[in-house]
Amino acid sequence: MRYIYLHGFASGPGTRKGQYFKKRLAEEGIPLLIPDLNAGDFSHTTISKQLDVVRHLIQQADDPVVLLGSSLGGFLAALVAEQVPTVKGIFVMAPGFDFYARRKQIMGEKALNEWQRRGVLDVFHHHLQKSVPLHYEFVEDARKYDGVSFTRNVPAWIVHGLEDEVIPFDASFRYLRENEQAQLILLHADHGMVEVLPMLWEYFRLFLRLLEPNE
Questions:
Q1: What is the CB neighbour count within 10 angstroms for residue 42?
Q2: Mind listing the domains of the chain with CATH numbers?
Q3: Distances (CA, A) of 136 to 66, 111, 122, 139
Q4: Helix crossing, 197-211 with 16-26: angle to 10°?
Q5: pLDDT score of 215 more than 60
């Protein structure tokens, strides 16, 4: 079994949650891959390009895969699991389903139009700790994945914070209806969920036990 962590929007391999899981898994002799989904070029990243990064990484071996994901990375995990049969389970935290619609709601139509007019928008990149111009192509591409249906039933645990200020937990309800093996776990936490990292780890260990009979 291979384990891959997918970071969130405007983040990178140094993500705090990702590094926490990497350390805990390493203690049990299990490597965790945390690819740079932006492929070193956040300015020109898109959801489609990030999906290509994950698919290429999975295709390098025939081993079954477990995907972990946070925020946009959680949405990516669900999309990849729908397409790639070697993905045997996903464990996602505050997943950003319907990313485009949510971004549009947060920014507003006027700000999106201005982004389109200018061609780029300065976005604070948490991994680089600075603002980076992101091309409007990201928005056009993200729109393609809004409202996408999920037909593959795969073990999926969604952990979400009740105090999430970015993505409300009900954003996952449609996925729960479409995937009979999906479960939602609610914790008292915000979007970052760093205050409940030990609890996230314990839930992940339980999730792995669920997968054991399928290995």
A1: 22
A2: 2-97+152-214 (3.40.50.1820)
A3: 32, 12, 11, 5
A4: 60
A5: no
Sorted by sequence, the CB contacts under 8 Å of residue 202 that are 6+ apart come out as none
Q: How far is CA 98 from CA 51, 63, 79, in A?
A: 15, 29, 11
* Pairwise CA distance, residues 5 & 21, whole Å: 9
Q: What is the pTM of this model?
A: 0.96
C-beta separation of 43 from 10 below 8 A: no
Residue with tokens 């477990």: 66
User: What percentage of the chain's residues is helix, strand, coil (to nearest 5)?
Assistant: 45, 20, 35
Confidence of residue 213 (pLDDT cuts 50, 70, 90): low
What pLDDT, on a 0 to 100 scale, did the predictor assign at position 61? 82
Q: What is the DSSP string of 133-169?
A: EEETHHHHHHHTTTT--------EEEEEETT-SSS-G
pLDDT of residue 132: 97
Cα separation, 22 vs 4, whole angstroms = 10
pLDDT in tens, 174-211: 999 999 999 999 999 999 999 999 999 999 999 999 99
b (16+ CB within 10 A) / e for 77-97:
bbbbbbebeebbbbbbbbbbb
On average, the pLDDT of the chain sits at 95
pLDDT of residue 212: 82
Return the closest-CA partner of residue 107 out of 122, 95, 97.
122
What letter represents residue 72's amino acid? L
Q: How much is the pLDDT for 185?
A: 98
